[in-house]
From TrEMBL:
GO (cellular component) term, any one: mitochondrion
Cofactor: K(+)
InterPro entries on file: YjeF_N_dom, YjeF_N_dom_sf, YJEFN_prot_NAXE-like
Keywords: Cytoplasm, Isomerase, Metal-binding, Mitochondrion, NAD, NADP, Nucleotide-binding, Potassium
Organism: Extremus antarcticus
Coiled coil: none
The record's free-text note on cofactor binding: Binds 1 potassium ion per subunit.
Name this polypeptide is given: NAD(P)H-hydrate epimerase
Function comment: Catalyzes the epimerization of the S- and R-forms of NAD(P)HX, a damaged form of NAD(P)H that is a result of enzymatic or heat-dependent hydration. This is a prerequisite for the S-specific NAD(P)H-hydrate dehydratase to allow the repair of both epimers of NAD(P)HX.
Location of this chain's protein in the cell: Cytoplasm; Mitochondrion
Record-linked Pfam families: YjeF_N
Main location per the UniProt record: cytoplasm
Keyword NAD carried by entry: yes
Length: 409
């Protein structure tokens, strides 16, 4: 079944002219669904839409006919044009749930700020949509401004109806906003200053997320032998932590850690592994051949320039590896902003899986494998401040799969 919703809008809606002379009034915003939702799910959607509005809970209400399963957005527009003249609902703006698993929705304007009867839409988080609609309706923000702050630029519509609305699963519907290298470093600083975290804590959670991702990709019963390649920075630290958890999960990790930082934290992480009799090897290529998976924890968001010794040979081996690779935060040697290098050992490197920590980095645009996000130590406020999204972790999971090949970020 083709589940891509038809979201095309007509060029103009001349009927909207009739609204131009009407005095502005705060009326409830109608909520529709372009997909199958039960009454409970619809009610939950409505609740989500009003969650951020600090006033009347009825500001978003279900339209008299709310569900337009497998129909086009145009049909809702036609219906709403008529409904809007009744004076019960705001005629100009309404909200549409497009996908049962989405926590993004559409805010639709039937007449943008230019009063030219031109419809337009923007993507919003479901929890913010009512507030966005209300602010637009009351005129606190203008349409262009709302669009600038919305998620419409980062929506990726690759629908998959295997998940239920209650999961609030992003996998199929949206791509998360990315975090550039400078912002990622600044966020790290902030977490460790005003955030009152220690680096040990962040690394422990990051490494735990890496190990859980490995488990999600292939459990130890299938892939016991994991080669963990660690670089000299914190990305390598995540790899050291992950290996410890992998050991406890039942894997047999082997470490490749050719350039150990003098920082005492790395010494402690190494000692913890040695006490568990986790082996360290100097032979990356030979060990890689005997491994079921490789974890690339060589460079993360602070990598820049051309790969220096002793890592070019390792990166080349990763690029040529027949053994699947899970990259931590970034495929090592990729530029964080501009992705794979034009030449050098990482030119053809595209790992099978990636776990982005805290938030995806811009390089994910070029990534083609399975994509996870982990590093569950940032709340909504910080995420908003740095302009990224907290992914919808489920339950106690430290990692969530968010997208796959071909998604537009
Ligand atoms: N909030 C979060 O999300 C958290 C993120 N965390 C993790 O931290 C990672 C960022 O860690 P980071 O800043 O320590 O740097 P990272 O990327 O490991 O690499 C820098 C090292 O690489 C080296 N190096 C650089 N360029 C090179 C080159 N061309 N060729 C050769 N070497 C090169 C350089 O070494 P140098 O050569 O200077 O000795 C430097 O030491 C991040 O991606 C995530 O995984 C968590 O642990 C905590 C919370
Ligand atoms: K990496």
């Amino acid at each position: 079944m083709d589940v891509h919703p038809d979201l095309l809008l007509p060029d103009r809606i001349p009927e909207m002219e009739r609204h131009h002379s009407k005095p502005s009034q705060v009326l409830p915003f109608a909520l529709y669904a372009l997909c199958a939702l039960s009454d409970e799910e619809l009610a939950a959607c409505r609740q989500q839409c009003v969650a951020d509005i600090d006033c009347d809970d009825n500001i978003v209400q279900l339209a008299p006919k709310a569900v337009f399963k497998d129909q086009s957005l145009r049909i809702i527009v036609e219906y709403h044009v008529e409904l809007g003249f009744g004076g019960q609902f705001d005629g100009k703006f309404f909200i549409v749930v497009v996908h049962p698993s989405s926590y993004t929705v559409l805010v639709v304007a039937l007449d943008d700020d230019e009063l030219q009867c031109k419809p337009d839409l923007l993507w919003s988080k479901i929890g913010k949509s009512g507030l966005v609609a209300a602010n637009l309706g009351i005129g606190i923000i203008m349409w262009d401004e709302a669009k600038d702050h919305s998620m419409h630029k980062i929506y990726a519509c690759t629908c998959n109806l295997d998940v239920t609305f209650n999961d609030f699963n992003l996998t199929s519907v949206m791509a998360l906003r990315t975090l550039g290298p400078k912002a990622a470093a600044a966020l790290d600083e902030e977490l460790m200053s005003t955030g009152a975290f220690s680096i040990d804590q962040l690394m422990e959670l990051a490494g735990l997320a890496v190990s859980q991702t490995m488990y999600a990709l292939s459990p130890p019963s299938k892939s016991p032998n994991i080669l963990v390649a660690c670089g000299p920075g914190n990305n390598g630290g995540d790899g050291l932590v992950a290996a410890r958890h992998l050991h406890y999960f039942g894997y047999k990790p082997t470490m490749y850690f050719p350039k150990q930082s003098k920082n005492e934290l790395f010494g402690r992480l190494r000692t913890q592994l040695e006490q568990l009799k986790v082996p360290f090897t100097d032979d990356f290529v030979g060990t890689a051949k005997r491994s079921d998976w490789i974890i690339d924890a060589i460079f993360g968001f602070s990598f820049s320039g051309e790969v220096r010794e002793p890592f070019p040979g390792v990166i080349k081996a990763l690029a040529e590896s027949k053994v699947p690779v899970l990259a931590v935060d970034a495929p090592s040697s990729w530029n964080i902003e501009t992705g794979p290098p034009d030449d050098g050992p990482g030119k053809d490197y595209n790992p099978d899986a990636l776990i982005s920590l805290t938030a995806p980095k811009p390089l994910v645009k070029w990534f083609k494998g399975r994509h996870f996000v982990g590093g569950r130590f940032v709340g909504e406020d910080i995420a908003e401040k740095y302009g990224f999204d907290v992914p919808p972790y489920k339950g106690s999971d430290q990692t969530v799969e968010i997208g796959s090949q071909g998604e537009k970020l």
